[in-house]
Amino acid sequence: MHRQLIDISNLQIQPHDLFHHRWALLTSGDFDKGDYNAMTIGWGALGTMWRRPFVFVAVRHGRYTFQFMEKFETFTVSAFPDRYHDALSLLGSRSGRDGDKIATAELTPEASQQVAAPSFTEADLVIECRKMYANDLNPAQFLDKSIHHIYPHQDYHRIYYGEIIAVTGTEKYAA
């Protein structure tokens, strides 16, 4: 997939569509060292925090990707054309602890432009991030009590804020 560098101020994206309907692929680790993992995510946001463009992603402590998010400074959030829905489904339902699920999904990891975490050849959008904040959700702070039912096992997410360092995408993502 041919992607071009996109200035963050020119990025055209529908965040709710990306995370809720299309899903995204969170990848953390180091491509050059071959030490990374990816998981499909349906929760996240883009915006501005501390005067910087950011992405936030949510990862439960029990996910294999959690250890990569803790160990490495960078991550990528990637979007794919619809034809990769089955691959994203597999990457969201299997653990990297049990084998090379990226190879099983038939995706091709590649070096990112600015960060150590991998990108994917097949992605039509890659947002490269450097972690700048992380914190666990605190159920005592849930103002909407209906949120508690999402955590019957009290396995709360850690939220990672990543400063957007680079964005590459196809022309449909550029203003």
Can you offer a commentary on this structure?
The protein has 175 residues and is an alpha+beta fold. The chain has one domain: Electron Transport, Fmn-binding Protein, Chain A (Pnp Oxidase, Chain A). It contains four helices and ten strands. The strands form two sheets. Strands 1, 2, 3, 4, 5, 6, 9 and 10 form an eight-stranded antiparallel β-sheet that branches. A two-stranded antiparallel sheet has the order 7-8. The longest helix has 9 residues, at 85-93. The chain starts with a strand and ends in a 6-residue tail after the last strand. 34% of the residues are buried.
End-to-end separation:
19 Å
Count of individual domains = 1
Quote the beta fraction: 35-45%
Overall geometry comes to globular
Instruction: Please give the radius of gyration in angstroms.
Output: 15 Å
Number of helices: 4
By DSSP, the count of extended strands is 10
CATH architecture: Roll
Element-by-element helix/strand order: EHEEEEHEHHEEEE
Question: What would a concise description of this structure say?
Answer:
With 175 residues, the chain is an alpha+beta fold.
Descriptive terms for the model:
175 residues, alpha+beta, Pnp Oxidase, Chain A, 8-stranded antiparallel sheet, two-stranded antiparallel sheet, 4 helices, 17% helix, globular
Secondary-structure topology with pairs:
Elements: E1 4-5, H1 15-22, E2 24-30, E3 35-41, E4 44-49, E5 52-60, H2 64-71, E6 74-79, H3 85-93, H4 101-104, E7 109-110, E8 119-120, E9 125-136, E10 157-169
Antiparallel strand pairs: 1-10, 2-3, 2-6, 4-5, 5-10, 6-9, 7-8, 9-10
